[in-house]
Amino acid sequence: MHSFKEIVARLVIVANVLIIVETRARYIYQPGPFVECMQLEIPCGGHSKESCNEYCENDGFASGSCNGHCCFCHARNGMLPQIFQRQHSVGPKPSTPSPFNTFLKLETKQIEVTEPEKVETTNLVTAKIPNKRFASLPGNEIFTKPATNRGVSKNRNVVEAEGNVCLTPACVKTANAILENLDESVSPCDDFYKFTCGNFQKDQPIPDDKGAVTLMGSLTDKLMEQLRTMLDTENNAGKSLSYSADLAKTFYDSCRNSDLVNTRGVSPLHDLLKILGGWPVIEGSKWDFTAWSWQKTVSTFRKSGLITDYLVKVTVVPDLKHPSRRILNIAEPVLAFSREQLRNPGFLNAYNQFQTKVAVLLGAEKAQAQLEMASVLKFEEILANISLPRELARGHPLNFHHPMTVAELQSRFPSVEWLSYINSLLPQDAEVDESQIVNVHAPEQLTVLLNAIDKTDKRVLANYLMWRTSSAVISYLSEEAKQIQHEFLGTVSGQRQRKPRWRECVDIVSTTLGQAVGAMYVRRHFDETSRETAIEMANDIRSAFVDILTTMDWMDVDTKRRALGKAAAMKTNIGYPEQLLNEDILRKLYDGLELSPDNFFGNLLNLTKGSTDFSLRKVKQPVDKADWLPFGKPAIVNAFYQPTQNSIQFPAGILQGHFFNKDRPNFMNYGSIGWVIGHEIVHGFDDQGSHFDLNGEVKDWWNPKTKQLFHDKARCIVNQYGSFSYTDKARNVTIPLNGIVSVGENIADNGGIKQAYKGYQSWVRRNGEEKKLPGLKYTPNQLFWISAANNWCSKVRPQQMVEAIQMGVHSPGEFRVRGTFANMEQFAKDFSCPIGTPMNPPTKCEVW
């Protein structure tokens, strides 16, 4: 339930909306103190229609007309010009005012209000409503007549809201959104997250097809709806589609054809398994192991359009020591789930049931499936134990740089025929010889991994590989198959029902054909003027970071100079790259890709094969620092820092909704997308980005003493966030946050919000202080913090929260707000939080 104050505040906002909407078509003026029902009249007094029109145009209106009694000025684009006390030139001044009506006559609508008190003024008079709780809200005034005629012979009064409150539609909508989430029963100095997002958590239901509901997720939902409408309606007018749009539309239509997908059932997977040599648990004693090898099977995976990273991961990456060239990288396999989950007995039990059900669906005997899939599960546990803990994976990049030739790789790890295996994965035009440089990500780990593979029975290995393939594609089969997967995933995330079919299809198409869908999205939805506003913000925030760097007294002069150079060299990519709208470039990108409107499963395999070909073929190509493809998927709600290019990216999809609106006050934008911009900038200087120089090369550009001070400051962040924990009350389980794994994101959060705040203050100095929002008592600076906290308003199912903590690198939203803002002196000052309160602790952590 909302408090009386909240209800009244929302009524004020609704009234303001009606005033704006109902009066935007026509504003009526009078030079004297005559005010009636939001209308000011200008008696024509014998003047012609032309003179009335000229009068209105001079005041910034679109036009004017005269009805014999009044001059009606018609607003331009529905907005009232900012004209105050302007000397009029049309008609005589009335000697007496008309009586004030107690109804706000908005054309055909009426809003009844209490008879207002009169207030002395020489211009417009605002009357405060007698109800003190109602009247105390900022912006809660109505217009009434002046109490005196003094000065009216020289000035014309303009009906406008209170001067320091913004009543534009964007401001009204923004204020209402804040009130929806705000819980003012909580002190902002005790728990700013609950203060800002408390009612969001109380009032927002979690949809059955989600494990959580978040404001960021709501923006993604909006984006998905935009893409859905675009893909559903494209070509409805009969116009021919571009090559790339036709690919996206064809793939989407094949996915949406659920009748055909259900008719085919699991037969596409059955046929695929036969091509791959059969799944032993299904084949039983007929499966022949004598000529079987995992290398040959994985090679067949590659030719069939399947993922090949289930035992050894082979990719193409930039050479850290020679960043202009690319090399092959040999690394640990991609696990089905996180290391932590695959070591959790409760999770393993549910996972094994899922494995068994899928095997039975595809034709295995249940008892045999239970027996053989138990062996597969044990092998997956072995792989999980071999994999690097997430804490170690955050080590220095050069800890994972061990280059050698293929010949040296063969000598050191002889159990695999490396040259033939690697070439079986590469496209024919990219095959290599024994002199090719490869990087072994973790040599000691690879030794243990290959030994484990050698010691594992072939049947178990084959069952494992066929299981991983089957589980990867089961969601693209019939409803029966998808339901089995959903029942298992529901135990992990708490999700009660599957996403609607259209959402699954939009997700798949926008992920696999990101450039094609992105080009369609930009052409239809992206507001180009938003880019300029966002660029101005990014420049302000980067300048703020430069200012912050110059004040860092813990940095030596040389390290600070290099840091400033890196910040200055950082490239900013906002919206989308120009190449995206060049259809010739997109045609070349997708050249050779074949898709069919009636073969969804086959389309998926073709897309995977084409994408892998594209990635692995780069082993023969030098690194292109100007490559646009890393920034070529704008239809996404996210932002990125690319260390090897020293660049930040803000796709078009995030420049909308809560994060950005060019028509609302800038304290909202700097608090929301501004924090994100600052966050990505700081990633260039966090525990990982700090290893790369201004050119994206791995170099140690830090003075040893300064580096140690940096690590000490980072350790403060690690300890602070590591002290937070989440308690699942239903299961009475408390899970601590991993401060080590999340340290990079937490450093970026802390430095990013400080930059955004400083950048906003710079904007205010140039443009002046902004107006408040209606129905809210908070200052622009306070609303900056409220906007920032709203980024992470969320309501999460316990299972989803546990999964996020165990698998993610970000702290949950609550701790991103509480942890970050508690370190900000500016926040404590703006909300007058006494020292020692939870949001203003005496000891604070600060890196940037």
TrEMBL record:
It is a single-pass type II membrane protein. Residues 1-25 form the signal peptide. It is found in: Cell membrane. Residues 638-847 form the Peptidase M13 C-terminal domain. Gene3D superfamilies: Collagenase (Catalytic Domain), Neutral endopeptidase , domain2. SUPFAM superfamilies: Metalloproteases ('zincins'), catalytic domain. This is Membrane metallo-endopeptidase-like 1. The lineage of its organism: Eukaryota, Metazoa, Ecdysozoa, Arthropoda, Hexapoda.
